[in-house]
Amino acid sequence: MLDEAQLAAIQQNEQVILLFGPNAFAGDVTAALDAIEQRTRCTSIVLTSHEQLPEFQSLIDADRLFYLSCGDLPEYDLDALIEGARRTNEPEETGELFLPADDLRRIATAESVAEIADAVERAIGNVIDHARSRCLLFDREQQLLWSPGETNEEASAAVGLVSYIVRTGKTPFLGD
C-alpha cells in the first residue's frame, strides 16, 4: 500500500508508470489507482501470483492495467514492458515489411477484415518456420485483441504473450 508521501510524490507528475508486485493484491492495486488517477495518468504493470489472477478481472475489464503477469518477470522483459509503457502516447513508427508478392497481392485484394486476417496468417506462415499462425487484431479504442475468424474470441490487451508483444513491440526471450 502507498503511504501519503508516496502518493504526493507520484501525483506531482502528469503521467507515471507504476510497477506493482511481486505478489500484488488486486485490492491494493485498485486502491492505489483510485487515489492516483484522480490527478495523474497511470500506466500500470502488475506482477501477481497465480492464485490472485481472478481478482484482477475488474481492473482488466475497466482497462486499468497495461500488463498483468502471473509471477515475476526477467529484467529483460520488465525493461521492455516499461519502455513499451513509455511509448504508449508517442506516434507509432512504421517499418517496412518484406513479404512475397503473392502474399501482398492476397492482402491487397481482400474484401473484408476476415479475408485480410486470413491472408496475413498465410503470409506469416510463408515467411517464418512455424507450427501454427494466427492473426489477432488490436482494437486500440477498446484495448482488446480479437480474431475475425473466431466468434466471441476477445482478450484484454493487458494479459498474455501477444499483448506483451503489442505493448512492447519486442519478441520476448523464451530461452532454450
Textual characterization of the structure:
With 176 residues, the chain is of the alpha/beta class. The protein folds into 2 domains: 4-89, Rossmann fold (3-Layer(aba) Sandwich), CATH 3.40.50; 101-168, no CATH class. 38% of the residues lie in helices and 15% in strands. Strands 1-2-3 form a 3-stranded parallel beta sheet, sandwiched between helices. Strands 4-5-6 form a 3-stranded antiparallel beta sheet, with no helix packed on it. Helix 2 (26-36) links the parallel strand 1 (15-20) and strand 2 (41-48). The radius of gyration is 19 Å and the shape is elongated. The model has no long low-confidence stretch (mean pLDDT 80).
Secondary-structure map with pairings?
Elements (H helix, E strand, L loop, with lengths): L3 H7 L4 E6 L5 H11 L4 E8 L8 H5 L5 E4 L4 H12 L14 H8 L4 H15 L9 E3 L4 E3 L7 E3 L4 H8 L8
Parallel strand pairs: 1-2, 2-3
Antiparallel strand pairs: 4-5, 5-6
How much helical structure, as a percent, in the residues?
A: 25-40%
Biggest sheet architecture: 3 strands, parallel
In DSSP terms, counting alpha (H) and pi (I) runs of 4 or more, how many helices? Answer: 7
> Given the C-alpha coordinates, what overall shape results?
elongated
Calculate the mean pLDDT score and round it: 80
Percentage beta strand: 15-25%
Radius of gyration: 19 Å
CATH fold label of the largest domain: Rossmann fold
Distance between the termini: 37 Å
- Strand arrangement in the largest pleated sheet: 1-2-3
**Class inferred from helices and paired strands:** alpha/beta
Return residue spans where pLDDT drops below 50 for at least 5 consecutive residues: none
CATH class of the largest domain: Alpha Beta
Order of helices and strands: HEHEHEHHHEEEH
Q: What is the correct CATH architecture of the largest domain?
A: 3-Layer(aba) Sandwich
The count of β-strands is 6
